[in-house]
Amino acid sequence: MGALMVIFSLQPKQKRKRRDSVEDELELSAVRHRPEGLEQLEAQTRFSRKELQILYRGFKNECPSGVVNEDTFKDIYSQFFPQGDASTYAHFLFNAFDTDHDGSVSFEDFVTGLSILLRGTVQEKLNWAFNLYDINKDGYITKEEMLDIMKAIYNMMGKCTYPILKEETPRQHVEIFFQKMDKNKDGVVTIDEFIDCCQNDENIMRSMQLFENVI
Amino acid sequence: MATGVAAWLPFARAAAIGWMPVANCPMPPAPREHSKKQDELIILNVSGRRFQTWRTTLDRYPDTLLGSTEKEFFYNEETKEYFFDRDPDAFRSVLNFYRTGKLHYPRYECISAFDEELAFFGIIPEIIGDCCYEEYKDRKRENAERLMDDQEENKDSKLPNMNFRETMWRAFENPHTSTMALVFYYVTGFFIAVSVITNVVETVPCGSTPNQKDVPCGERYTVAFFCMDTACVMIFTVEYLLRLFAAPSRYRFMRSVMSIIDVVAILPYYIGLVMTNNEDVSGAFVTLRVFRVFRIFKFSRHSQGLRILGYTLKSCASELGFLLFSLTMAIIIFATVMFYAEKGSSSSKFTSIPASFWYTIVTMTTLGYGDMVPKTIAGKIFGSICSLSGVLVIALPVPVIVSNFSRIYHQNQRADKRRAQKVQKARLARIRIAKKGSSNAYLQSKRNGLLNELLDLTGSEEEEQHMNKTSSLLESQHHHLLHCLEKTTAHEFVDEQLFEQNCIEGAQFSRSPSLSSQEGFTGTCCTHRSRKRIPLPNASLSTTHTHTHTQGLQELSAIHIQCGDQPSLSTSSRSSLNMKSSERSRINCRGQQITTAVISLPSPTNFPPDGDGHSPANPIPAPPTINTTTSSNIVKVSAL
């Protein structure tokens, strides 16, 4: 009698274990992501083979599973700005890189983004920047969106700055930005206004070329 | 520098393009990469075993031996590899630290050998990952204890410069230090035993004289016992006085438990001497003799275990209190019940509730003397319930006390657990400082960069080479990134001390906020360019053009860099460098002026230049940092 009870109690556990292990495997395989082949990436981006190798090694080291989720992304980005809080800006950056909006940045997304930033034409770079600022991706940058971005950037500075950061500093900065960019004064900046204005601004043009030789 | 994520620096820099359209000022130029090295494999030959890794892997931690240029000392030209004459097994952990970012402590490794390896390769042990840190700390503590035990045996040699009083105190506390102390220790122990035994024997009836019944020995041999007592008390008094004399803090000594016990032990004798043979007080005198039994507590100086027991009871006070309280509750309840149950029966011993207390206590502790027994049926029922519950109530708190005792015992054995907590705090503090070093490193390099400018303009070449020292390419790229952020937001990073000072200053001088922020915007970008013309090693750029201000508002910026900074890489060459430059400024009349003080004049009234007020307010840092004293003498206001 006791033996029967023991056997009965064991059985369901085994079934449960088998089911669990199958589910676990599914989960694991979903998280582990293998990128497309080197040749394909070479064709899609403007990096050479060697550069892709270096990039992938660094990427995989930090994210062994092959994809970056938003928290890891925020962590990594925050380490470059120890004095302030880079998480908000990292959030916007994450959305800019995550082009298919699946909640994680795979190596392809990563490399595609970098390819535009480092090897793209000025037009493409400006496009990318516009995409970053346009939080809801509706083709217009409103003052609220710009304010969010500006606050995020100022947050990265942290508290200890000179001169002391005031509450209205981001707002004023947004005003200046809109004065410059918003040609028809309709309160939003479209992609054409943006690209036009940036191309006419010498400072911005020069600074776009700044990071050419990063890789 | 963000260690371990160096591989993502190119990404962070690329992402900085997002700030460009927003910035109002031109960006600083990117650091030049002097040699565009392709990533290459490095061979590390450690005592014959070859390890290979990418160069960038090692570059992740630039403040260690392998990550910095220090490894060039070990480069072997013929074989084109780096040779280290160290243990290859330990090196495995070190290299894995570079690869994975986590340092692990291998269990088979000897703790001091591992420490030596870490010290050699410039890695601080606090970075050991959480998985292995407990083990590491435990092993280290054991080792330290063992060494300390060995050391203590050698500590018996008398320290020099101890006066007589300190020697005596040390002799009292550690009897093993000298033979005199040991003799004293045994003598007092003997006399305590003698005193206790005489107290006991005094009351034994010894022999009977034919005409009287048994008398206790104390009354028979009064003189002999009196002499013994006197001798013991003499010894105890002398000991007490000597301890009082030798104690470093007499007041604290007199308050301590042991000294109170001493006093209580000898006081009855003196009181007895003083008191006459008056009938009324002799009764009280007899009770005083009870206190003589406290002499037995003097043994606790001689026994460590007794002390621990006493300490345990003291620290278990709450558990003991709970035990007592619960017992009292139960006693009252059962006594009441028993009283009312037995009220009916005749010739019952349960005359009142307090009388029933005795029955309840005896029953609950399962003593059962039998002098009071219930006779009624109800009484017997409740009596049995009482005895059963007694077992439970007593058995429950006792294990708590026992476990407390064992805990305290072990705690006493490892009294440096408290030291370990401090070490934990110290570890976290060290890691925090190392991380803070990254933000401070940027501020420092800014200073370096600006001093570089000054040097460029004063035209001395040698010092410039001094400056281009340790910042690796990665660091300079990271700093360039931070500099771009500063330019984008038109604000600058400063360290905490300066920030607080600014807050205080801001409160003091009550500048109009809107004015200064506006100036901050328009002024910032342009002044930097104009600065180039006038060589001023000014860190902050929130100054304004005087020609845009008719009100005479002048805000000259401060050499904040000179004040209150934690030097993470400070060299003597840097401080001497500054002195040289200021000397040069005094001697050299090339028409270049160096502003070295904070002077903010709020508009429009003419406040006196507060330069003097400010510079002394700046904390003068420790010698390794830049010397402020020389600069505070040169309060020159540069004419903008």
From TrEMBL, chain A:
<feature type="domain" description="EF-hand">
    <location>
        <begin position="169"/>
        <end position="204"/>
    </location>
</feature>
<keyword id="KW-0963">Cytoplasm</keyword>
<dbReference type="GO" id="GO:0005509">
    <property type="term" value="F:calcium ion binding"/>
</dbReference>
<keyword id="KW-0479">Metal-binding</keyword>
<dbReference type="GO" id="GO:1901379">
    <property type="term" value="P:regulation of potassium ion transmembrane transport"/>
</dbReference>
<keyword id="KW-0813">Transport</keyword>
<dbReference type="Pfam" id="PF13499">
    <property type="entry name" value="EF-hand_7"/>
</dbReference>
<dbReference type="GO" id="GO:0008076">
    <property type="term" value="C:voltage-gated potassium channel complex"/>
</dbReference>
<dbReference type="GO" id="GO:0005267">
    <property type="term" value="F:potassium channel activity"/>
</dbReference>
<dbReference type="InterPro" id="IPR028846">
    <property type="entry name" value="Recoverin"/>
</dbReference>
<dbReference type="Pfam" id="PF13833">
    <property type="entry name" value="EF-hand_8"/>
</dbReference>
<keyword id="KW-0630">Potassium</keyword>
<feature type="domain" description="EF-hand">
    <location>
        <begin position="85"/>
        <end position="120"/>
    </location>
</feature>
<keyword id="KW-0406">Ion transport</keyword>
<keyword id="KW-0472">Membrane</keyword>
<keyword id="KW-1003">Cell membrane</keyword>
<dbReference type="GO" id="GO:0015459">
    <property type="term" value="F:potassium channel regulator activity"/>
</dbReference>
<keyword id="KW-0576">Peroxisome</keyword>
<comment type="similarity">
    <text>Belongs to the recoverin family.</text>
</comment>
<dbReference type="InterPro" id="IPR002048">
    <property type="entry name" value="EF_hand_dom"/>
</dbReference>
<dbReference type="GO" id="GO:0005777">
    <property type="term" value="C:peroxisome"/>
</dbReference>
<keyword id="KW-0407">Ion channel</keyword>
Automatic annotation (TrEMBL), chain B:
<dbReference type="InterPro" id="IPR027359">
    <property type="entry name" value="Volt_channel_dom_sf"/>
</dbReference>
<dbReference type="GO" id="GO:0043025">
    <property type="term" value="C:neuronal cell body"/>
</dbReference>
<feature type="transmembrane region" description="Helical">
    <location>
        <begin position="180"/>
        <end position="201"/>
    </location>
</feature>
<dbReference type="Pfam" id="PF00520">
    <property type="entry name" value="Ion_trans"/>
</dbReference>
<dbReference type="GO" id="GO:0051260">
    <property type="term" value="P:protein homooligomerization"/>
</dbReference>
<keyword id="KW-0813">Transport</keyword>
<keyword id="KW-0851">Voltage-gated channel</keyword>
<protein>
    <recommendedName>
        <fullName>BTB domain-containing protein</fullName>
    </recommendedName>
</protein>
<keyword id="KW-1133">Transmembrane helix</keyword>
<keyword id="KW-0732">Signal</keyword>
<feature type="transmembrane region" description="Helical">
    <location>
        <begin position="320"/>
        <end position="341"/>
    </location>
</feature>
<feature type="transmembrane region" description="Helical">
    <location>
        <begin position="254"/>
        <end position="275"/>
    </location>
</feature>
<dbReference type="GO" id="GO:0005250">
    <property type="term" value="F:A-type (transient outward) potassium channel activity"/>
</dbReference>
<dbReference type="InterPro" id="IPR004056">
    <property type="entry name" value="K_chnl_volt-dep_Kv4.3"/>
</dbReference>
<dbReference type="Pfam" id="PF11879">
    <property type="entry name" value="DUF3399"/>
</dbReference>
<dbReference type="InterPro" id="IPR003968">
    <property type="entry name" value="K_chnl_volt-dep_Kv"/>
</dbReference>
<feature type="compositionally biased region" description="Low complexity">
    <location>
        <begin position="568"/>
        <end position="580"/>
    </location>
</feature>
<dbReference type="GO" id="GO:0046872">
    <property type="term" value="F:metal ion binding"/>
</dbReference>
<keyword id="KW-0630">Potassium</keyword>
<dbReference type="GO" id="GO:0043197">
    <property type="term" value="C:dendritic spine"/>
</dbReference>
<feature type="transmembrane region" description="Helical">
    <location>
        <begin position="221"/>
        <end position="242"/>
    </location>
</feature>
<dbReference type="GO" id="GO:0045211">
    <property type="term" value="C:postsynaptic membrane"/>
</dbReference>
